[in-house]
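ingest -> validate -> predict -> emit
validate: passed (alphabet ok, no gaps, 150 aa)
predict: started
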Amino acid sequence: MFKFSLQTALEVRSRQEKMRMKDLAEKLAVERSILKKIAEINANTSKAENELDTAKASRYMDINQMIFLSGFKNRMKVVLAENYEQLKNARTEVKEKQFALVEASKARKTIEILKEKEEKRYLEKITRIEKKNMDEIAGNLFIQKRRTAI
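emit:
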């Protein structure tokens, strides 16, 4: 029965890789949520601009509406800039987590390769022992047949 000598290390490396995958997934979720916020802000700003244009075209507009929409657009520019900064930070974190995942995968894969080599050596050893035993049995049968033939 094959028993890998570094099985515990392989299990630890596998757990570490899964943790890195989870960390990366969390950071990707944060990045997606920021992108969603940016898209919503752009949509809301476009909607406000369209409403402003409609109001201008209908000539039914007062100064308070213009001030409100202008303030809204300015506020959205500030919020958009903050979101782009958050997105930049989130993308940096995603890259870091991707690198960590790649390193964890390499570490696990290294031990898996060692396991495969060790298992191959084990199987070769078992095959040699079985062949030796079969040769010995065949030799004993041959000698036994010769003795009974005499």
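The longest helix spans residues 63-149.
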